[in-house]
Structures
1.
Amino acid sequence: MAEEPQVIGIIRLIVEIIWTHIRLNFEVLRSIYNFFLPREPKDVSEDIVLITGAGHGMGKEVALRLGRLGAKIVCVDINPKGNEETVNMIKEEKGSAYKYECDVTNREAVFALANKVQKEVGEVTILVNNAGIMPCKPLLRQTEKEIRTMMDINVHGVLWMIQAFLPSMLERNQGHIVSMASMAGIMGLSNIVPYCGSKYAVRGIMEALYVELHEDKSRDTDGIKLTTICPTIVNTGLCKKPRSRFPKVMRVVEPEEAADQIVDAIRREYLEITVPSELYYISKLYRAIPYKAAIVANDFIGTGVDPHD
């Protein structure tokens, strides 16, 4: 009789292995299917989209494009002038936009912002964590203040925004969180060592959040979508001295092109993209080969950023 529970346990394990194998193959086949036949872009005309760092660069361009698609855009920036310009541009195009000034490094201010937006505009359905800075010089020349400020904006700001806006999304089982990582969060580069660390952190936060939502058995979370964006060097003024031996291959991307791809990724609910898209497969290869081999390849390509103050 003692052997009977043991036999049942073995049978259950075999069934579980078979079921896991089926699920693995299903997800692989679904990924291949979605590659050749991507899902249709979703309608965002009923969405309330909050974008941090909306007063400049990619944040501004993403705000304009989503505004043209009929979404209500909540523009958030610590720079009131740039933020107001974005809001006015959206309104000039007959879109709906609201401006809020907030320091994303201040957790209390972020939660106050969430309450204010909820009362004055409505429930945010798409959150775009775009705010970020990039000091560009060798690690030993970066000051404690520069590093702490950058980590506060690039990492803590993302965490505070998620903590502030995710609860209402979970209550409705509806929402989409988008966070701006970087190709510097996939492969390290000199002169931006702390920045690379911050963007690796953003990717880690988003991946871990996906797992946490997946493992939450207390409620339905399938309506919460996550998208991580990994751009290469975008011509927004953050990186003033990009370097590449083959500039046509490893090119600097204009904010408008980057925004087109970001909006497409949001509407198709992709889990992660690179900008430009071809770098996605290069990055996978980079992580698959031995690290020193990847360094040899990078030496040949000559991609990087030179320091500037």
2.
Amino acid sequence: MTKNSLEDEKAVTMDNQQFTVRGAGGVELFAQRWRPDRAPRGVVVLVHGFGEHSDRYGYLVTALTAAGYLVYSFDHRGHGRSPGQRGHVHRFDDFLEDVRQMIARARADEPSLPLFLFGHSVGGLVALDYAIRHPEELQGVVASAPLLSQPNISPLVLTIARLLSRLAPTFPLDTGLDPTTIARDPAEVQRYTTDPLVHAKTSARAAAEAMDAVAWVQAHAGELRTPLLLYHGDADRLAPIAGSRTFFVNAGSADKTFWELPGGFHEAHNDLEREQLFARLVAWLDARTQ
């Protein structure tokens, strides 16, 4: 377990099972499941953000399992304990196929339970993209600080990524991410900076693919039909809240909710007031699993 693991957060109160899921191109992805200590009322498939991994969601997992939800997650290719060049993906659609395989595993295990897709940051972009394309599979989608506009990283990095995406797609780039922007809790910043599985790397192709995905998701927001919960800290300096505001206005879901979190930084699940957020999140899920 890493220093950012559930054990380090003293949050291991549920059954945890680790396994692999075969993603796009046959890549074996590290995956895990947390089961509550009572009959589950629903399933949450959690899609983590860029440069991190699934073990960084201990507080959120604890809150969800305590409320009776099974949580499934995996490490993206090139992230955490999954194989591949750090921060590289050849096609953004590979992320979508990986999510599809994770959902298929969760459905095989629990065919009768309502299933929600949760994504944070780039994972939020992935989740919204997936929900637009596959609404029939989901009871709802939750997007936490999704990347829906140009990220606050060096414009030079993005320009280089565009130029090199086809010529040298695996060319490594450093995003220059500032760890102090993830949360207002100094302990969480320290966890992030000392976690050996965290990185600030991307490839030229991955960066270009992400920006293309942002444009596609914004252009197709009106096609979203899945119940939507979107929340975003209004002091987020990594993924600007403006993108979420635009997407929410255009989202086609008849059932849609947007929480702007005053003073909130990028990782609301690791930020101050997280317990209040979790209570609101669980209430939203419960209302859709009656």
